[in-house]
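Chain X:
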Amino acid sequence: MTRAGASAEPHVHPTRDDAVLAGWSASVGGPVGTRAGRHPWWSPVRVLLALTAVVLAVGMLQKAPCWEDSWTEESYAAMCYSDLPYLYTGRGFAELAWPWTDDAVVRERYEVMEYPVGIGYAAWAAAAVTHLVTGRPDLDARAAVAPAYAEVLAEVRAFVVVHALLFAVCALLATWFLARVHRRRPWDAAGFAAAPTLALTGLVNWDLLAVVLVAAALWAWARGRPVLTGVLVGLGTATKLYPLFLLGGVLVLCWRRRRWRELAVVVGAATAAWVVANLPAYLSGPAQWQVFWSFNADRGPDLGSLWLVVAQAGDLAISPSVLNDVSTAGFGLWCLGVLVLGLRAPLDPRLAQLGFLVVAGFLLVNKVYSPQYVLWLLPLAVLARPRWRDLLVWQAGEVFYFAMVWWYLGGVLEPGGGGDAGAYWVAIVVRVLAQLWLVGVVTRDVLRPAHDPVVEERSGPQLTTTRSNVVVV
C-alpha cells in the first residue's frame, strides 16, 4: 500500500523521490516524466547489478599499484593494502593446511587463523582453487619447509584474484537482495551499488561474505520467512560476529507485536545454523577454534576506535580487561536505548533501521574500527535512510578516514619533530561524527515516521500498523 491517492506506479523513481538526485538530473533533462517508458530489458535490478560491477572494477583498478608489486612495497601509501595476500603464507594456505588442524608440525610453523569459521572455510577453499589454477604445487615438498612469501608470488596473486571473483559475486548478490527488500523501491539499493567505500574496502578483508548474508536476511524477513531469516543470521554470525545484532531488531519488532513464537523460530534457526557451521572447525581442533574468541578478548585500543584517541592523546595505558568491561557496558546501554526507542516509536520501525542503529553502536564503542568495517553498515544504512544527502555525508567521512588511516600506517602523518599523529585522531573523530549524523536522522525517522522515505506495505512476519492515511510497517 502507499499513501492515499498515490499512483500505482511499478516502482518509486529516484529522481522524483530524492531531492539530491532530482537536482543532479537537471543536467540530463530533469526528473523522469510521468509518460516515460520502460526499457524492455534494462530493469532497475539489472541497472543496479551493472552499476555494482562497474564500482567493483574501479575498486580493482584502485588496487593496481599493489598488484604490480605483489603487495610487497608501499601498500599503505598507495592505499591498496589487503590482508589476503599476507595470510596466504602466514596462515599456511600455501600448503593448504586446514585452518583449525591441531597437527603439531603445522602449528609450529603457522599461526592459527584468527577469524570466524566462515572466513576460514572460504580462505581454505580459495587456496584449493588457487593451487588448481596455478599448476598444483608439490605440497609434500612444502611440508618440509614453510614457503616464504617471495617464493610464491604467482600463487599470492591468484589467491587474491580468486577472492576478488568471490567477493564480486557476494556484492552482486547483496545488490540483488537489497533491491528486492521493498518491492516498490528497488533503487534504494543504488546507495550500496554505487558506494565509494564498496570499491575502496571490498578487497581489504573477507567482510563481503557477511554483508551478502545480512542483505539476504533483510530480504528473507521482508518476505515473511522467519526460518530462512534465522539461518542467514546464523551463517552470517559464523562469518563475522555483527550479523548477530540483527536479532536485536527482530526482538524489538516481535516484542511490539507480541509474536514470541516468531522470535523463537528466528533465534532457534540462527542458533542451529551457527552450530552446524562451527561444528567441523570445532571437532577438528577445539583449541584452535577458540583462538578467534581469545584473540579479540586480548586486544587493546586499536585502529579507528575512539579508545585509541583516548589512549594516545591522554598517554593512558588501558588494559584489555578494563576496555572489554567498559566497551561491553557501553554497548549494553546503547542496545537498551535502541530497545526503548523501538518500543516507544509511534509506528513499527523497519528491521534495517533497528539493525543499523545496533551495529552502529557496536562500532562506536568497539576497541577496533577497521576501515573495511564500513561494509557492515552499508546494506543496513541504504535501507534505513535511503536519502542521498545523508548517505553522502556519511560516505564522505568514511572516504576521508580511509585515506588518513593508510597514511597514518605508512608514516606520512607523523609530525616532522616526532610525537603522535594528531591528524589521525582528527580523522577518527570526523568519521565518528559522520556516522553519528546518520544515526541521528535514522533515529528521527523512527520517532517521527513522517520523515521516513519508505512508506509502503510490507509482508511477512511484520505487522501492519495504521495511523491516519499512512500504512507503515
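Chain Y:
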Amino acid sequence: MHLRSIMAGEEDLRDMPRVVGVLSALLERVTERNDAAADAAAPTPASAFRATTKPDISVRAYMARIARFAGCSPSCYVVAYIYLDRLLRRRRAPTVDSYSVHRLLITAVLAAVKFMDDICYSNAYFAKVGGVSLQEMNYLEVDFLFAVGFDLNVSPEAFGHCCTVLRSEMLCLELERAPPMHCCLADQDDTPTTTTAPPAAAASSTQHQLAA
C-alpha cells in the first residue's frame, strides 16, 4: 500500500496559521537532509509510514492541504510536532524522508486533533485529505499510537518549549527571506556593525532529533 498521488498545486500558505509554514519548512529541510544521506546509509527498515514510491506533492503543498481542509486549531500543529519528536526519539523510529514524511504528518495531525479539539472530522475524512485509503489511515493511526506508547498528554511546559523552538525557527526563516541590510553605522573603532540571526540553539537541537 502506498500514498496515492494528489493532484494539487503549491497552495499558498500566506492565509494559513504561521505555525503551518514553519512546520512545513522545518520538515522540508529535515527531509532533504535525510534524502541526501540515504545513499550512504544502511537500508531503511520497513515501516507502515514508508511508501513504496515518493508522493508527487511537496511537503509544503501537503501541509497547506491539511491546514485548508482539516479545520483544526493552530495548537494542533504544535502538538503534532511534539508527537513527531516523541516518535522519533524511540528505538526503530522511521526516518523522516520523502517516502515517509507525508504519512507521518497526516497521522500526527490526526492524533493531535483528536486529543486537542472538541470537534474533529472522521478518519474517513482525514484519509481523503491525506490521500490514503480509510484502511491505511486506521492502520497508521494505531501504529502511531503504539509507537509513541500512547503518550499523548502534553504539559503546558512542553507546549511552551515547543512554541519557543518554532518561534525561533520562524525568526530565522523571516531573516532568510528579508532583503540584505546595508550597514550605514560603524562602531567607535570604525569596524562596520553586522546584523546576525538570533540564537537558534533550541531549533537546531530539535531538528537534529527529527533527523536522528
